[in-house]
Specification:
Blueprint (H helix, E strand, L loop, with lengths): L3 E7 L5 H15 L6 E7 L11 H9 L16 H4 L2 E4 L2 H10 L8 E3 L20 H27 L1
Parallel strand pairs: 1-2, 1-3, 3-4
Helix pairs in contact: 1-5, 2-5
The protein binds 4-nitrophenyl phosphate (4NP).
Length: 160
């Protein structure tokens, strides 16, 4: 495969998936693969379309050197299933919502982010929206872990 496009998906596209997008973009850039791997994010819900990421997510990310400020919320569309090679859900509800709207031929593009983690054995990235700052730190820890594994998997596909 010559290039790969991945889209991270959560509920609102203002906390978890933009965090995953920024972490992955950073890792892809560091690996000098920015011309081969396209990274985006979206939400299954429509409440935060056009909005910047949650302030708490931005603050936690900024402390680790990730800038979420240019990102804006958008909702998953049916066209995304053709456009992206992988749609990577943060939790089971996100994966179920994706599966429901996904044309049958593309269902195997839907994965859970934490499948790619190696240090943290949680199944999902929990929604931090109604909790405290520690939830946002945990989201970043999980994204950093899982994106390393995802990048390894994508590299293998690029050379295959
Ligand atoms: P996210 O977090 O899915 O990680 O972006 C949420 C953002 C907003 C809401 C829920 C979760 N909300 O209920 O508005």
């Amino acid at each position: 495969m010559n290039s790969i496009a991945v889209c991270f998906v959560c509920l609102g596209n203002i906390c978890r998936s933009p965090s995953a997008e920024a972490v992955m973009l950073h890792q892809v850039g560091r690996a000098r693969l920015s011309d081969k791997i396209v990274v985006d994010s979206a939400g299954t819900g429509d409440w935060h379309i056009g909005q910047p990421p949650d302030e708490r997510a931005q603050r936690a990310a900024r402390k680790r050197g990730y800038d979420l400020s240019p990102l804006r919320g958008r909702q998953v569309s049916r066209g995304d299933f053709a456009r992206f090679d992988l749609l990577i859900a943060m939790d089971d509800a996100n994966a179920a919502a994706l599966t429901e709207m996904c044309p049958a031929e593309y269902r195997d593009k839907i994965r859970l982010l934490m499948e790619f983690a190696s240090r943290d054995d949680s199944r999902v990235v929990a929604d931090p929206y109604f909790g405290g700052d520690e939830g946002f730190e945990r989201v970043l820890d999980q994204c950093e872990d899982a994106c390393e594994g995802l990048l390894r998997a994508l590299r293998a596909q690029l050379v295959a």
